[in-house]
Write a structure and sequence with these properties.
With 238 residues, the chain is an alpha+beta fold. The protein has helices spanning 5-45, 57-60, 128-132, 209-237; strands spanning 54-56, 75-92, 98-108, 112-120, 136-143, 173-186, 189-190. The chain is elongated and about 90 Å long.
Length: 238
């Protein structure tokens, strides 16, 4: 018994809709992998495109505001007074070596503050009380705050390089991120000490660039197969 034409038409429309839906899903997955490949490539070349021109901290960052992407890793200069010193344990440098770092809270202007990595904790300056009473000029790289804790917070110790861990012990308007000092000076006299290097950044996007591109090809091939399959079945039926 022949089925009604309207029922056949409805089945064909439903099948076509299912095919288009699957094809669009596979195509979207390919676009997603393509975006991840582009983001991964951009993250790998960021370090080579950083502007090395020294600018004032206040010109690219503001207190109580998240750092903008174009402010990250910029070379900045700022003047102020150290009002506190903290030990930041288990910090890794560019070689992966773990050590304890000295981090100072630099008062900027009348109400601002920013964390400054000054060097190794073992080489902290003995006359810090005198230095805290004098203006200090700092030049260094502005880095994003750390996400994961490296230790427990305790008096004089901070768990990570993040201004959020000190907001409860200061009334200053703190800047996001921290400065990795390359130079510190008072009245033109520079402090001579071992400076630490920034931890080597690892992309948060898993996988490799070409791996993501291969996934793009796979997903789009699957979309093509889904679109071709109805025509193949019709050709076989004939």
């Amino acid at each position: 018994m022949r089925q009604p034409r309207s029922k056949n038409l409805g089945s064909r429309i439903a099948a076509a809709f299912a095919v288009l839906l699957l094809a669009s899903i596979f195509f979207s997955l390919g676009v997603w992998q393509l975006d991840r490949a582009a983001a991964l490539k951009a993250s790998l070349v960021t370090a080579t495109t950083v502007d090395q021109k020294i600018v004032s901290l206040e010109s690219i960052a503001s207190a109580n505001t998240s750092l903008k992407p174009n402010a990250l890793n910029r070379q900045v200069k700022v003047s102020g007074h150290y009002i506190a010193s903290f030990k930041a344990p288990n910090q890794a440098d560019a070689t992966g070596k773990l050590d304890d770092w000295e981090v100072g809270l630099l008062r900027v202007g009348s109400s601002g503050g920013i964390l400054v990595v000054r060097g190794l904790w073992s080489e902290r300056l003995l006359n810090s009380d005198i230095q805290q009473s004098m203006a200090v000029d700092v030049v260094g790289a502005l880095h994003a705050r750390q996400d994961g804790d490296r230790a427990d917070n305790s008096p004089g110790v901070i768990s990570r390089l993040d201004s959020a861990v000190i907001v409860g012990i200061t009334d200053l308007d703190v800047f996001d991120g921290y400065i990795l000092a390359a130079h510190e000076s008072q009245n033109g006299d520079e402090f001579l000490r071992t400076r630490v290097s920034a931890e080597k950044l690892i992309s948060r996007i898993p996988g490799f660039y070409w791996q993501h591109l291969s996934y793009v090809v796979i997903w789009w091939l699957m979309a093509g197969v889904v679109l071709y399959l109805p025509f193949y079945r019709r050709k076989v039926a004939l």
